Amino acid sequence: MHTTEQPRLAPRACAVEPFHVMRLLERAKTLEAEGRSIIHLEVGEPDFPTPEPILAAARAALEDGAVHYTPAAGLPQLRERLSRYYAERYGARVGADRILVTPGASGAIQLVFQALLEPGDEVLICDPSYPCYRQVLRLLGVEPRAVAVEAADDFQLSAARAEAAWTPRVRALIVASPANPSGTLLGREQLAELLAFCRAKGIALIVDEIYQGLVYDAHDYTALEQADDVYVVNSFSKYFGMTGWRLGWVAAPRAAIEVMERMAQNLFIAPNTPAQHAALAAFEPATLELLEQRRACFRERRDALLSGLRRLGFGIDGEPKGAFYLYARLPEQVGMDSMRFATTMLEEVGVAATPGHDFGSHGAERHVRFAYTCDLPVIDEALGRIDRFLAQCRESGAR
Fold first, then answer.
1. Neighbours of 296 (CB within 10 A)
2. Which residues contact 110 (CB under 8 A, 6 or more apart)?
3. Is 172 helix (H, G, I), strand (E, B) or coil?
4. What angle do CA 212, 218, 220 make, to 5 degrees?
5. Confidence grade of residue 27 (pLDDT, cut at 50, 70, 90)
6. Which among 135, 196, 183 has a CA at the least distance from the CA of 156?
7. Could you give the angle at the alpha carbon of 321 between the alpha carbons of 315 and 322, nearest 5°?
8. CA-to-CA distance for 97 and 253, rounded, in angstroms?
9. Which of 23, 43, 334, 387 is most buried (CB neighbours < 10 A)?
10. What is the pLDDT of residues 184-223, one digit of tens each?
11. Count of H helices and E strands in the chain?
């Protein structure tokens, strides 16, 4: 006897929340297709093309037939080059055998979480923070234990707040520097205190450094300068301009790398081969010179958008020193939460931004993330449009 009943989908999978920003992006693309002018300040992707030396290396690899599997941990020469990069740029001793190349930072995060955690465990995360932390943890049956962080703390987790939130079920703590959505940095002393806390509790410290290199008015450093028992996640996506190439890495203790390599064999087989050969050119002097020029451009954009938003009444405490985001409190006269604000602003004046709801619940209704991943003239146009939208909000509120 046949039944028309469909197989059950896993409740854990069905509970995964969508990116609100992706819904807004889809709507923005629809409006563009209809002929509307849309300014994209919502998606965290550099607008610069992948540097030419990287493209040239990719073309050469394809012509040479470099399209077959590599070891699951990545090309040995790429792991060695990453090891040298840490030594040359940061003075950190990280052996190639402590580095595993992954399908994007997302692949690295999955491997780290699965290597460290069991169903029923808890992980301390910032609220607000990158939304995929929560979703991946829940897929694994692990509970994200969100800790509210404030603008006064640079939206970064302190050891004192971690201590207050700790339970015996906590097995790890994850922070990001520079952070998404705030663009703030974790200070060396603050990191040292978190490391001491994690060691005292016998839990893992995971540091997401995916925006490393995109640092302004501050010293760019890695947690690996301070310790070799941390788990550091990174990627070629942001600083190196290789988002669609889907290539990242994790640096971790050797014993953990051995475990993660076995998992990678089963989950991914290997990272993208042409992308790995291309990434070898990411460290050439010509590439790094270009990337530093782009970093200077991002700093100019940050300054323009920061001063412009403040002039319009948005609240941004301090001066975000990294990534390419500003996490702004809505002006008082808006009279709506961030979800409605972002949705309505897109429809009314064609400016797309990300509502705070994507990044957690603490203060989410009062915050919007703006990405300065477009040229200065476009940022100026966006500020003009936002000004007009705020004027509409004031007029409607006065009625």
1. 10
2. 136, 267
3. strand
4. 30
5. very high
6. 183
7. 110
8. 9
9. 334
10. 999 999 999 999 999 999 999 999 999 999 999 899 999 9
11. 13, 12
